[in-house]
Amino acid sequence: MSVSNKKAPAERVFLIVLDSAGIGNAPDAAQYGDEGANTFLSISRSEKFNIPNLKKAGLGCIEGVEYLGGELGGAVCRLSERSRGKDTTTGHWEMMGVISDVPFPTYPDGFPNGIIEKFSAATGRGVLCNKPYSGTAVINDYGAEHLRTGALIVYTSADSVFQIAAHEDIVPPEKLYEYCRIARDILVGEHAVGRVIARPFEGEAGAFKRTARRHDFSLEPTGRTLLDAIKDAGLDSIAVGKISDIFAARGITESIPTVSNADGMARTEELLERDFHGLCFVNLVEFDMTYGHRNDVEGYAAAMSEFDRHLGRLLPRLREGDVLMITADHGCDPAFTQSTDHSRECVPWLILGKGVRKINLGTKHGFNHIAGAVATLLGVDFDADCADVTEDILES
Q1: What values do phi and psi take at 34, rounded to 5?
Q2: Residues 36 and 58 in one domain
Q3: This prediction's pTM
Q4: Quick one: average pLDDT of 83-107?
Q5: How far is CA 169 from its chain centroid?
Q6: Is residue 1 in some structural domain?
Q7: pLDDT at residue 340 greater than cutoff 80
Q8: What is the sign, positive or negative, of the torsion defined by CA atoms of 329, 368, 322, 363?
């Protein structure tokens, strides 16, 4: 699908990604060992789950989420992923029109010796761990040795990530970022992982905790994204949270880092009061990082309820010409006992605004439908390789 600049129904589009808030039922989930995973269903069983605004928006009208009930408050759709993989980078790239036909490499047995040796030689530091590990457990298990030796804690997960943990008193964050850039330069070709992640922590043995100074170093997208097209058209492309990291800062006109979901929503509410023309692209990472990966059903449910309260404040403040979209990039079912990692799930797509029709679009294959709709709404020339749904969602 290609669109032109002739018609621009929206002045501003706000796209909020509830990181990992999948809705189950991915047709190929079994290929990923994720059959039966359903993030939203799991958290909906918690007494801390209370989402009246999402229900009013139409979340419970999406195929596979009817158990929530509610009403149709805008356009709704269930999306399945075209790309291979189930990680953050793949999901976000597809939302912006880049399909990944080959999954990023993963390392269930740790990284090859050759990679670790190159990294150690380039940084002048030893390496601890080098295996898949929980981010909180790895600093508890290796943090004391790291303090004693200065060796870097390198670990991975079921996702395509090279993560480096270091205590801020031993390796200041800026130095840790330098080490991540070194790793990014080494991890190319067949070892081109999706993200190199700095994981600074603080505290004493037995009470280590990660700080908010995490930073992701992603590959550049392998194709032209909608963000590139928006920026090239002279419009605003504002990234809130880790969006800029995911796209290696490409196509971004302004980046606003955040430290929590609440901070991300606060920054988004501030942007509602600003005059800009273009896309505000928001990632709320705590759902995934803090609750999904830690199998914390109650925490995830409470966090979703907190988001819903923010949504209740945000919706009445939308202007004429504003469109709000809410979606997710993959699943991370906190009740899925087979794994603490991402799950291959479909995701919700809610489209809200004063000029948006109340309609159920059913199920569509490809997160890139989001790119197609945003391009049309903003009047940006971009080939999203999908059917245009905007005629269906906009009131005539």
Answers
A1: -120, 15
A2: yes
A3: 0.91
A4: 94
A5: 30
A6: no
A7: no
A8: negative
